[in-house]
Amino acid sequence: MATSIGKGRLAFGLAAGAVALAAAFTAWAFFGSAYSSGESVAEANPEVLVRVVLLTPVVLSLVVWGLLHRACAHDSARAKTAATAAASLLCGVAVLTGFSIGLLLLPLAGALLAATLLTPVSARA
After folding, report:
1. Looking at residues 69-81, what average pLDDT do you find?
2. pTM here?
3. How far does the chain reach from its first CA to its final CA, in angstroms?
4. What mean pLDDT is predicted for residues 6-16?
5. Distance (Å, whole) CA 72 – CA 89
6. Residue 124 pLDDT > 70
7. Would you say residue 80 has pLDDT above 90?
8. Which own/partner pairs from 84-87 qualify as long-range (CB within 8 Å, at least 24 positions apart)?
9. Distance in angstroms (rounded) separating the CA atoms of residues 11 and 9
């Protein structure tokens, strides 16, 4: 039991940290200087698809956090599986965006994936 509580706390810390990193990344992408001209990523790329890609990490990390909360609170294996799928999707986004923003997304995607693996749910759930 103590091991599962420790794993749950570590999973919560990883998921909460990933949400904070995703929020910081999104704020930087929309408002921070990313180019030598002083423009942010969003200013330099005004297309809607770019904005969707920039919002994806924070949205997916919040979804994963919520699903992991549900998995812990209700001992739900389905919520844990859905969280793992969403975290895997974020890993896929990080790989697809490669050397542009992908390198910045890999740490938070890895933290979310680790959180899904550490979230304790019973085998019967």
Report:
1. 92
2. 0.88
3. 16
4. 89
5. 21
6. no
7. yes
8. 84/113, 84/116, 84/117, 86/60, 86/112, 87/60, 87/112, 87/113, 87/115, 87/116
9. 5
